[in-house]
Design goal:
This protein is an all-alpha fold. Helices cover 67% and strands 0% of the residues. It contains 14 helices and no strands. The protein has helices at 5-36, 47-53, 58-79, 86-96, 103-112, 120-136, 141-154, 162-182, 188-198, 202-215, 219-231, 239-252, 258-264, 288-291. It is elongated, with a radius of gyration of 31 Å. The mean pLDDT is 76.
């Protein structure tokens, strides 16, 4: 059966359309690719205006901005484009929720491991955000620990001046020691004291190891701390007092943690500590200072 004239015209028209698409598609794709790599137009209002626009739902607004930041960061990474608006997003989040629990865990990664390699200026910006974090969450051991680890181990690779690098490492070591005192893993103390001892701050390193020994009940950690103190020509000054605390912990408070035992205070036998003159008896200490006085 022969094709009609209309069918032939339709085939020719389809062929011409295909050729036209092939000729136009390449230049359009190249133009779109170039356009997609240009800087974004940020529609985020200034932080002070952003606070008013949330109508009181600040925590929800901060979470929404955080989600938007993570999505945009991923897209820029995929497209290998610079993302200079990261600080603007972070400022907006902190304006709505200055103690945002997640932002301080990732601020250094966001700033220094963006699609474009981080610089010393980015490291200083990250430090400023961390310092705001320890002001907003002064008793959060994890924020202090992240801050200290950033200064001591991550940031120095982005700095150039050796004096500045050494100072940042020392500041980081002090932040890590403070984090341990607030409840962070005592294992972190060993790295911090190594930095302090290399910097010539032997007394500070010894003092921190002494405090960390008292804070941890892990045998292996204590063994390492004693070895480190021996290298620094020091000993565990409070070892006997710590032994008294732990003996009472095991004998009288086995169902609570060691920290809770320190809060409860030394055991006082009701049979021996009754009466108005109980506080003067050696067997009835009112606090741990009195309970460990003779061994200090």
């Amino acid at each position: 059966m022969k094709a009609s004239r209309g069918e032939w015209l339709a085939c020719v028209l389809v062929l011409l359309c295909a050729v036209g698409i092939a000729l136009v598609q390449g230049p359009l794709a190249a133009e779109h690719k170039a356009y997609s790599r240009r800087d974004d137009i940020l529609l985020l209002p200034p932080p002070d205006q952003l606070r008013a626009m949330t109508l009181g739902y600040r925590a929800a607004g901060a979470d929404l901005l955080w989600a938007k930041l993570i999505v945009e960061h991923g897209l820029h990474h995929e497209e290998k484009r610079a993302f200079p608006d990261i600080p603007t997003y972070i400022d907006g989040i902190l304006e709505l929720d200055p103690a945002h629990p997640i932002i301080y865990d990732f601020v250094d990664v966001l700033l220094l491991y963006s699609p474009v390699e981080g610089t010393a200026a980015d490291a200083r910006v990250a430090r400023r955000y961390f310092e705001r974090g320890i002001r907003e969450r002064p008793y959060d051991s994890q924020v202090w620990l992240r801050y200290g680890q950033f200064l001591a181990f991550l940031a120095p690779s982005f700095l150039k001046d050796q004096a500045e690098i050494d100072q940042w490492k020392q500041d980081g070591a002090r932040a890590i020691t403070h984090a341990v005192e607030l409840g962070a893993d005592p294992d972190r103390a060993l790295a911090a004291t190594s930095i302090l001892s290399r910097a010539g701050e032997r007394k500070a390193a010894i003092a921190h190891l002494q405090r960390t020994y008292a804070l941890t009940d892990d045998y292996e950690t204590r063994r390492q701390i004693k070895g480190k103190l021996a290298q620094l020509e020091a000993t565990v000054e409070a070892e006997s007092a710590i032994a008294i605390v732990e003996e009472q912990w095991r004998d009288h408070f086995p169902l609570v943690s060691r920290g809770a035992t320190l809060l409860l205070g030394p055991h006082r036998d009701p049979r021996l500590c009754a009466g108005p003159d109980a506080s003067s008896k050696k067997a009835c200490p009112e606090n741990w200072t009195e309970a460990t006085r003779d061994v200090r």
